[in-house]
Amino acid sequence: MRPGNAAAGSSGGREADLRLADAAASGDDGARRTLALRLADRMRRTARFLLRDEADADDAAQSAMVEVLLCLRRYRGEGSLEHWANRIATRTALELVRRRRRDAEREGRGDAALPAPEETTTCGDEPEVVLRQRLLRCLDRVPDERRATVVLRLVHGMTLEEIARETAVPRNTAKDRLRVGRQELREAVREDPILGAALQERLP
Amino acid sequence: MSADDADRECERCWELADRNAAGALDATETAAWREHLRSCPACAADAALAGLAADLVAAGPSANETADRERWVNGVLKRAAAGGRIPTRARTFSAIVAIGAVALAAAVVTAFLVVPGSGSHDSRGGTPGGAARTAEVSFVAGSARVERAADRRLAELRPGDSLRPGDAIEVGVGRVGLRWCGGADLHLDAATRVRLEAAETASCTVRLESGRVVANAHGLARGSRLVVSTASGDVRVKGTVFAVEVVGADAEVRVLEGAVEVLVPSSPVAVLRAPRAMRLGGGPARTLTVLEIDRDRRLASIPGRAEEPVGARVAMPPATDSQTGPETALEPGPSRVAAIGGAERPAGRLPGPAGRTDGARVIGPAGVRGTGSAPGAVAVGGAEPLPTAGTAASDPVAPPAAPTPRELLDAARRLRIASDWPGAAAAYEELVARHPDSGEAHVALVPLGQLRLERLDDAAGALRAFDDYLRQDATAPLAEEASWGRIESLRRLGRPAEEADALRGFLAEHPASLRLGEARRRLAELGVQP
Asked: What are the tens digits of pLDDT across the range B233-280?
């Protein structure tokens, strides 16, 4: 099952989602808050996986959440609210990836000037937080466009056609980016003993 | 196994993984995929990484996230309540302003419109030496919004509205006319966003963030300067009619009448005379050999007047150094072009046929001729005269014109490029509603359906669009796309019986389609024999 669809839920869950969305769209402040609190973590993580810069990721997640709140009438209950909101977060983050790429090109900066990843976890953090941060650090070593392709594949389970459509490139370009990006990510992960050990446990 | 063999095997694995992601693997293929994962460390690592990454995204909240969530959500709710706008950091990115995000991010070109305060230019209005501090909306043909600097709220833009520095205008469909700087006219195209930035004693600044503007500076107050801001360079225009358009990361300047000065960072000033076009950005400025002016002419015309035939363009003869002037920074070589006529003239005394450019010729349909010229009209390359700056605002009887099918299609295209999916869909819908019998409206149904399906989560609306397209002509060029879109719509709507019927129809009607395999697989999933 696709990760993105995992939360699609039952029809009863979707009906509850629809009721919540309707209430929020009608201006019910409590419903808006409930909905935003429920979606916030996942949308922020989705954006952070796609964007190297935490501030950029936060901007993208905020913009996506605003769009969710302003466009709730468009939610028709065909999947879970989470899935719908994550698509918006993904699309918004990808737009920012493209924008950053153009900025870099205009300023003559290439992919070589990737910032050094920073250690952001502490001893007391939960294992998932540590692993997530380590995986993000590995992703930070993959240039933006290849990173986006890899994340869309690994995290969101998109097909090559879907990745090509989302990133607005031909299928073969998406394929090349995925091929190189996967290799770069594997190499980065190999150098991280904790992440490497976590992966070992999951190997088929 | 050689490395090449391994690569090929991995590619096969990719295909299987793709189809596994889409839930389309049968038992044999699933077994093959698992077997490959056992023998290929790279693919196995990918599979493990995918599982880990998906779990980490879906995991419960961390202590930090829990602590921060409330604050973050409060900020977002406040921003949403304000219509999506918040005081932002320099790189904060607004989802609402993202209507033109692609072009907006791409470019900030600066075009300077200069009328020297001394010399041959007469004043035709406004206070000498002083630009008007407010701009007036002379017409709105279509839909547009204004974002007031005072409260950042959006409101519908109406003819006669007064705008002040800091106000921004977003044109949805159609076009908008502004009069500023004591009488200069700015016509904004569909899907254009500008912000009025400053109105100092002698200069008015307009930031063109996306889209296209045609400016007619003949009404500019003496001594005033109109500045249009974009990213790729500066353009100074002397008492003329010109267009500036943001094109991706570049900007294109087209001089319809008169002369402009082009200022690219780190380069000397170049003089560009009508009819001439130049591309700025991505290296040295490039002159263009053919000046496409039909859309600019239409945008520069007054709504409600007869439209010029589409397709006119002006081919420019080879350049000579003397015509570009000593300050030129144009690239040497065969593509270099020189000024042809279009001399500066006193503001308010606009050229008739006798004043149009020499050496330029019109390539286009009959009827694009420079016959006659209303007082104050501008002849462009021998084509129909453009209206004057004054008539646009002073003609109270000119009704707002409905956008043409072509304009609406163009607007939808621009909005799609800018990733404004709701805006693009609205433009397609308006095209279908206003011009239901046009060829453009028929063609628009397919991208409209795709937008609804893929971007707007509106499978029912998508189905209606695809059905409408096929109902009008089931053998039209986009019939395969429409049929497949219809199948996907039915799938998302959870109507398997109709989906199966549609799939069978697809197999029969499009036997050469690349989607045959997918259609057969889907039929098998539905338990139906092809």
From this structure: 555 555 567 777 777 677 777 777 766 666 666 666 666 776 677 777
- Beta strands B225-230 and B203-210 are parallel
| Residue B484 clears pLDDT 50, i.e. is over it | yes
- At the topology level, CATH places domain B405-525 in 1.25.40
Q: Are residues A37 and A58 in the same domain?
A: yes
pLDDT on residue A204: 62
Q: Which helix (H) or strand (E) holds A50?
A: helix A29-50
* Ramachandran sector of residue B233 (left: φ over 0; alpha: ψ -120 to 50; beta: rest): left
Residue pair A45/A59 in contact by the 8 Å Cβ criterion: no
Do A141 and A159 fall into the same domain? yes
- Among B50, B51, B459, select the one facing A78 at the smallest CB separation: B459
CB contact under 8 A, A42 and B58: yes
Q: What is the model's pLDDT at position B23?
A: 59
Residues A104 and A121 in one domain: no
* pLDDT higher than threshold 50 for residue A162: yes
Query: Among B27-31, B162-166, B461-465, which stretch is predicted with the lowest mean pLDDT?
Result: B27-31
Residues B460, A199: C-beta atoms closer than 8 Å: no
**A92, A141, A202, best to mutate vs chain B, most B CBs in 10 Å:** A202
* A1 inside domain: no
Check whether B489 has a pLDDT greater than 90: yes
Chain A residues lying within 8 Å of B59, measured CB to CB: 128, 132
Overall domain count for chain A: 2
| Predicted local confidence at residue B149, as pLDDT | 79
- The Cα diameter of chain A in Å comes to 53
Domain that holds residue A194: 117-204
For chain B, domain boundaries: 3-58, 107-394, 405-525
Could you tell me if residue A47 is inside a domain? yes
- Give the Cα separation of B406 and B440 in Å (integer): 7
A69 vs B80: CB contact, 8 Å cut-off? yes
Taking CA atoms, B249 is separated from A180, B108, B207, in Å, by 27, 9, 15
CATH fold, domain B107-394, is Jelly Rolls (2.60.120)
